[in-house]
């Protein structure tokens, strides 16, 4: 049976960058069946909701899902359940992709594209493992209302269960074993109970299942600072949903541009992975052919590697991106002037 890849282009630059990634997939893995469906604002416009049951079912029946980006000013004022971002959160939850892998590596050719000094980023290769289906993003209760004295308030709940921490920590340990063997677990155990619980659980789990892995802990604020001071000290960073989100945008700037950062979101074995660039829909440049397609193309690379079991095709894509950058191909965010299409063609030339 043919493997199935579902494209969910979404909004803003989403369709521009997923089209680029699909073009590459068709070349390196032509036998894969590629389908397409709506998510985010595009789905709201068509169906009134950011993710329909049908599309979720279609995603579940695929081998991998590649999502572009969701959101934009057009839908920003809608109530929460009608916002594009809810489509993405429901998709992550629906696929139960609890482990979000966000690698940050600095391509040799982009060492001088980062706002940080060459010696800080040269050779950088770290992996953020972000918990993706729990924590403050999903915790209950949450709301905007008034207390019994009539004082208006907004609140969210940061909560993690032991099994939720365990399953993502195991992934971090496993990934570290295939790398330099070091995991730095990040939280705010100094002020948050859920953070203290996270630290204790990860420590206990490491004692039981951490063979071959060196575990350290860092407070999230200090980690943000260390990420820009001396990022090469890190191998794998394990973080909850919210801190992992923030730290991965920070890490993006070490690589030269947010337009370079891919991600893979994985669930239990045998279920489809969700692959998406770390960047958003970039409304400021949407529709102008200015988007850097690398994050989406590298997300496709991760799909080929992690869900579609095609390491050779993945290697080809990775090498082609590196060679295109080496040959000087740059979109505007990287200081060049190539359009999305021209950058994609420059990568295809190197396949
Ligand atoms: P953003 O990532 O969309 O944009 C931040 C900045 O980075 C902008 O200046 C943008 O032009 C630039 N940028 C982003 N991707 C780029 C690319 N591929 N090439 C070149 N430049 C790029 O973040 P934002 O502006 O905070 O959010 C815009 C919308 O996207 C919001 O609605 C937000 O909720 C949504 N969002 C979606 C996702 C997702 O779908 N996974 C992720 C982040 C933000
Ligand atoms: C990301 C985004 C999303 C998140 C939003 C759009 C829901 O910022 O994928 O990093 O916060 O997880
Ligand atoms: Mn984010």
UniProtKB/TrEMBL annotation:
Q: What class of enzyme is it?
A: oxidoreductase
Chain sites annotated for binding NAD(+)? 72-85, 280-292
What is this enzyme's EC? 1.1.1.85
Q: Which InterPro entries match?
A: IsoCit/isopropylmalate_DH_CS, IsoPropMal-DH-like_dom, Isopropylmalate_DH
Residues the record annotates as the site (Important for catalysis) are: 137, 188
Q: Which residues form the Isopropylmalate dehydrogenase-like domain?
A: 4-347
Instruction: List ligand-binding residues for Mg(2+).
Output: 221, 245, 249
Q: Does the keyword Cell cycle apply?
A: no
Catalyzes what?
A: (2R,3S)-3-isopropylmalate + NAD(+) = 4-methyl-2-oxopentanoate + CO2 + NADH
Q: In which pathway does it act?
A: Amino-acid biosynthesis; L-leucine biosynthesis; L-leucine from 3-methyl-2-oxobutanoate: step 3/4
- Listed binding positions for substrate are 92, 102, 130, 221
Q: Where is the signal peptide?
A: none
**Where would you find this protein in the cell?**
Cytoplasm
> How cofactor binds (record note)?
Binds 1 Mg(2+) or Mn(2+) ion per subunit.
On whether Manganese is a keyword of this UniProt record, the answer is yes
Write out the entry's keywords from A to Z. Answer: Amino-acid biosynthesis, Branched-chain amino acid biosynthesis, Cytoplasm, Leucine biosynthesis, Magnesium, Manganese, Metal-binding, NAD, Oxidoreductase
List the Pfam families hit by this protein, alphabetically: Iso_dh
Q: Per its database record, what is this protein's job?
A: Catalyzes the oxidation of 3-carboxy-2-hydroxy-4-methylpentanoate (3-isopropylmalate) to 3-carboxy-4-methyl-2-oxopentanoate. The product decarboxylates to 4-methyl-2 oxopentanoate.
Subunit organization: Homodimer.
> Would you tell me the protein name for this molecule?
3-isopropylmalate dehydrogenase
Q: Which organism is it from?
A: Henriciella pelagia
Q: What is the lineage of its organism?
A: Bacteria, Pseudomonadati, Pseudomonadota, Alphaproteobacteria, Hyphomonadales
């Amino acid at each position: 049976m043919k493997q199935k890849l579902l494209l969910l282009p979404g909004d803003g630059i989403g369709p521009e960058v997923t089209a680029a990634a699909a073009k590459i997939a068709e070349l390196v893995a032509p036998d894969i069946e590629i389908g397409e469906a709506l998510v985010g604002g595009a789905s709201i416009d068509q169906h009134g909701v950011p993710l329909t049951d049908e599309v979720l079912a279609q995603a579940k029946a695929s081998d991998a899902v590649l999502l572009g980006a969701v959101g934009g000013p057009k839908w920003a004022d809608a109530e929460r359940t009608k916002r594009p971002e809810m489509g993405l959160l429901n998709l992550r939850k629906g696929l139960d992709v609890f482990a979000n892998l966000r690698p940050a590596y600095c391509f040799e050719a982009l060492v001088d594209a980062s706002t940080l000094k060459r010696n800080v980023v040269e050779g950088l290769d770290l992996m953020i493992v972000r918990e993706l289906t729990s924590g403050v993003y999903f915790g209950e209760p949450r709301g905007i209302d008034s207390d019994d004295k009539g004082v208006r308030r907004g609140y969210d709940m940061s909560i993690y269960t032991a099994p939720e921490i365990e399953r993502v920590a195991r992934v971090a340990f496993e990934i570290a074993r295939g790398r330099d063997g070091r995991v730095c677990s990040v939280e705010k155990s100094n002020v948050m109970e859920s953070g203290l619980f996270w630290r204790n659980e990860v420590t206990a789990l490491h004692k039981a299942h951490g063979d071959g892995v060196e575990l350290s802990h860092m407070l999230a604020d200090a980690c943000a600072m260390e990420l820009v001071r001396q990022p090469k000290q890190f191998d794998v960073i394990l973080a909850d949903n919210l801190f992992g989100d923030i730290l991965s945008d920070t890490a993006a700037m070490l690589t030269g541009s947010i337009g370079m950062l891919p991600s893979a979101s994985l669930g239990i074995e045998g279920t489809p992975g969700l692959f998406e660039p770390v960047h958003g829909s970039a409304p400021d440049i949407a529709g102008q052919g200015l988007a850097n397609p690398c994050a989406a193309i590298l997300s496709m690379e991760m799909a080929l590697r992690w869900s579609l079991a095609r390491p050779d095709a993945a290697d080809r894509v990775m090498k082609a991106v590196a060679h295109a950058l080496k040959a000087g191909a740059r979109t505007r965010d990287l200081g060049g002037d190539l359009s999305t299409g021209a950058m994609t063609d420059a990568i295809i030339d190197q396949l």
